[in-house]
Fold:
Amino acid sequence: MPDLIEDDPRIIEFDVRTDEMLVNMGPQHPSTHGVLRLVLRTDGEIVSETEPHIGYLHRCAEKIGENLSPRQWIPYTDRLDYLAAMNMNLGWALTVEKLMRHEVGEKARHLRVLISELNRISSHLVGMGAYGLDLGTFSPFLYAFREREKILDLFEEACGARLTYSYITVGGATADLPPGWLQRCEAFLDQFEPIIKEYHALLTTNAIFVKRTAGIGVLSRAMAIDYGCSGPVLRGSGVDQDMRRDGESLYTGMYDGYAFEVAVQKEGRYPRDHSYPTVPSEAVLGDCWHRFFVRMLEVVQSMDLVRQAIDRYAACPEPLSEPLKLFEKLPVGDAYLETEAPKGQMGFYIVGNGTPIPWRVRARSSSFSNLSVTHELCRGCLIADVPAIVGSLDIVMGEIDR
Amino acid sequence: MKGPGFLESIEAAFPGAVVGSQLEALDPWIEIAPARIAEVCQWLKSRGEPRFDSLQCVTAVDWLETDPKKAAKVSWQPHLEMVYHLWSTSARATLVLKVKLPRWSGDVAGHLPEIPSVAGVWRTADWHEREVYDLSGVSFSGHPDLRRILCPEDWVGYPLRKDYEMPTEYHGIRCR
Amino acid sequence: MAEFLIGLGLPGWVAWSIAALVAAVLLLNVIAGGALVFIWAERKIAARIQDRLGPTRTGGRFGWLQSLADGIKLLAKEDLMPEGADGLLFRLAPYVSFCASFCAFIALPFAFDVVGQRLNVGVFFVVAVLGLEVFGVILAGYASASKWSLFGAMREAAQVVSYEVPLGMCVVVPVMLAGTMDLVTIGEKQAGWMSSWYLFHDPFTFIIFWVYVTCAVASVNRAPFDLAEAESELVAGFHTEYSGLRWSFFFMAEYGSMFLVSGLAAVLFLGGWNGPVPVARLLGFSDGTGESAAYVVRLVGLANLMGKATLGVLFMMWIRWTLPRLRIDQVMTTCLKYCTPIAAVMFAGAMFWQLFLPGGLFPGWGRPAGEIREGWLEGPGGLPAAASPAEDRSSTVTGGDPVERAGLATRSPR
Structure:
């Protein structure tokens, strides 16, 4: 052993023999976004190895799904990504509809776009605010939550719940929107639009923020695809993929006639139809800054989609299509569908066997794959970068542990 | 990926690897022989046309009817089915591969069925296969780090098996 | 005060002890009362910055009794100590921090001659004693037997060596301008209109003031330099394992030092107890006007300094609730790679300005020319401006004993 140490040039340089230390970050740590436990192997401030340990929030959701009808399982999907429960409802509802070869009416379709995009805004607001918190600034978090509250108020009006909505369901939605809701939603969007500039001022363009995020945790394009990353994490690495445009026809059909541009950097540029800040020179494609910025762009994109959906929904004369019965027989066969949830591609897999209860239910969550790159991104970074990197992946433990 | 031509190209590259297929299903699937899955996947990723460079999901379905009355009526033998959902980022196409495995290796309860790991092909499979191992009880040969991922490491049993029974107690904590 | 007591017939040592005790109690109240007010203010300000209300109920309106309620809660809390902790050091650490912060107040003048103990090395004393506060933090981190605390302590140690250097350089500039380390004299030299504050003395002092602000924020561990506690990274850093009253001592020390560095900034750069307009002088008050006038002048001065220091504290709160936290390597870069050279250049700049433009760009405007010269260039020995001492120095460097120089040269590689 002594020979080894003397041969190591690093040790002679420091003159003092250093030792590595194992540190548990979480599961009760302020910035691990829930009950994630990261075991860090550190040499001073430098992290040489990170190992995520998950499962603290495991609730056997898939096993429960094998004992309930698809509509009964809707409330369980709420608890996957609880920050974007509408998108979870939607993903599951579409998967079941795919298996049953059921199509919803025009009005339900526009309602689903409207609600899920609104939920995307609220999810990204939390992601953005919590990211500020990870970097040590408290105020953007509350600015984000202030606006999110207003979205939650709208949701509460629509379905009575503020977090676990169970609103979008197999065959449509549980209820139509109350009168005046669309106007209030539009009023919110008008009020919200100028506030995005505040977020950019406090975070995106803030010199310290850029220093903390640009060039940190660079996820290469190839690695992002190899690890099955999706959503803003994938697009932050410059992969032009968005299930709303590239997914299965059942899902992309929902966005038929909607105009939106995927928020991804192409040829060194982001789609610029608004007054966005420019990319700082230190930022490398695939770093924390880009992942964050893609989310910020998607907020604007979703606002645009909500506006379009409001018009279309209001123009639909027919009533909202009725949801399917609680116990509807499922055909024999299996169906898998990925939708573009705020955190990434949320896949549901269902196997039917001719009874109303599915034989097998599977939720493939985006955060699960997104989190699996942590050990690659955190190799050799500083301890302070670990929350910055994990925060930029924007994970929700609910859908990782299921 | 729809279209029979694709199926033939796999068959040409790996004679005998394709055991069955269902191209008319909602998600058309190809069944691969268990021992060949890793090489077929490697080929699909690096040589196939289009290249399936991304793995969306790996899961296992336990086909076992625990109710003896119903079990008499079902048309299939008890088995485990691995389902691989592949995705091509360039062609934006999906492909479903299925692999049939015995529920227990050699029909000895407790001996996990083995299948080559595809973690060397797509890194996504690393955690997904750990999850399948954890919840459905499939052993992946060649997996870099096959441990339980969601359940505690000393958990007994494979919860997503149909005949799984929840233990009454775990380290003094009442479970039922 | 001591003289007054001696006048009453008390023996000298008793009189001095009583005087010291009174000063100490007063200062303790400044810190403790200040901490109470500032914690409440921080809650309210943070809340307003973040679009919330903050405390509203405790003590009737505005929640003004919130800090008191917090204090009672902290007193009632269980005093925990981790099993593996070094008991003595763990208990000692909060007091080290608090005492350092408290002791530094001794030399800080609150108005002309309203000072715990007027020291002719006041600046040096304040900076040196304030530096001791860090030992409490490092001790706490080390003794807590927690890895996160240890990280906090190590960060603090790395941080202290980075900010102390530029901080010292910034502090030296007003000392150079005033020609003394006595804080009371430094304050008094800035009497007059606002333009005679050292902040506006020349462009270099203006810039170095901001360097001082940066380093001062770093020295009191406030965001964006709160790396030692860094709640999103190190849980709570050095005070992770502390609870109850011990924890609150750290807080009092933090708020005490915030007030102290702000007060120091006020004395060194912002005219101390002198208001922007020399009201007293315009009204014809001076020390000769009479006892009561002098009393009033000092009271106004006290309010001035308190106001300035409070503004400094509020400024720190403002940036805390606005900026993200820097990383440890970035703190070290900021302090050592940017602040130190800037401070050095500004120090040289202020020195040359003082040499060549002692009266400012417009002599006779605002600041009475020559007033500042007295301590510096016309001190004992009456150095005739710049040239000769520089020559002297250069001659000793180039000249001297060749053997000794050779010896130096051979020794130097070690």
About this structure: The CA atoms of residues 58 and 401 of chain A lie 5 Å apart. The mean pLDDT of chain A is 85. Chain A has one domain: 61-401.
